[in-house]
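Weekly modeling sync, notes
Attendees: S.R. (lead), two postdocs, one rotation student

Agenda item 3: backlog of single-chain predictions. S.R. asked that every request posted to the team notebook include the full sequence so nobody has to chase files. The rotation student volunteered to paste the first one in as an example of the format we agreed on. Action items at the bottom.

Example entry:
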Amino acid sequence: MSDGTDVFTEINHALLDLQAAGQQNFQRPLKRIAQLLHSPDLEVANQELASKADLDAFLAESRGTGGSMVGSQTLAWPDDPNLQLGLFLKLMDVFGNDPDQAIQYGHDFFYSGSKIIAGVHGMTRDLIIPFTREFKRYVLSRGKPAERLVIPGSNKVFIVHGHDDAALQGLARFLEKLGLEAIVLMEQPNKGRTIIEKFEDSAGEVGFAVVLMTPDDVGGTVGHDQTVRARQNVLFELGYFSGKLGRGRVCLLRKGDVEIPSDLFGVIYTEMDDAGGWRHKLVAELKAAKLEFDANRLWD
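Predicted structure, as returned to the notebook:
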C-alpha cells in the first residue's frame, strides 16, 4: 500500500471486525476486505489466480450438491489449491460489490441456525479466514511481492526469546534506547487469534529479528550426554525469520554454552557477554540491514 502498511495486517483488522459484526454492520468490513485484496501489492497474484477460475460453473455445481434441507449444499471445491484461491478471490469480488449476497451464501452453504448473521459468521470462520491465510502464503512464496510487504527500513524488531526474562528485558530496553520498536510476542494483544496467527501477524510487520539463544532446555541423542539448548519455540522462530527476512536481517545472540543447531554451523553469532560488547556488534548488524535509528544513543 502507498503508506507502507502491510496489507495483510489491514486485512486481519477487517477480519476481526467482520467476526464481531452484527447484521446491521457486517457490510463495511466485508467490503473493506474485498478492497484490500485488490491492493497494488497483491494485484499480480490476484490476476494470476483468478484468470482460470470459473465462478459461475463452480456455484452451479455447488448448488447441485444438496437436497431440500436448509444448509445441505456444500461448495464443490476443485482439487487444485491455486484454482480454489482464484474462486475465493472471485467470490470476494461478489461480496465487495454487494455485501448482502453474503447473507444468501452464508444461509446456503454455512447454515448455523435461525439467526441470519450466523451464516455470515460461519462463512467468515470456515471460508474467508482460512482462504485469506492461504492467499497470504501464496503471495509470500512468490518472492518479489514478499519483499514489498516488509517495510524497508522498518524500525520494528522482533525479539525471539526463551525463559531468560533478564536477557529479554535488557535487549528490549536497548533497542528502544536506539529509537527502535521492540516486538515481543507475549506483549501483543491476542485479538481472538490463535498463537500461530498472532505470531504470523506480528512477524509480518518487522524488518529485523534478534534471536536470544539462552540456556533454557537440555537435550541430546538418546544414550549420550545431554547438552544445554535453547527452547524449541526459539529454534522454530529462528528458522521462520531466516527464511522470511533472510539471514542478513536475523541476528543470533548466544548466552552461555548453548548448543548451536547443526544446520547453523558456520553461521556467525554474537556472544551476549556481561561487559555489553554485544551491543556494538548488534548495532553494526542493524546498520547493515539499513534500519533507521540513531546509533549515537548507544553512548547515552
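Discussion: group reviewed the output briefly. The first strand starts at residue 156 and ends at 160.
Action items: rotation student to repeat for the remaining queue; S.R. to check formatting next week.
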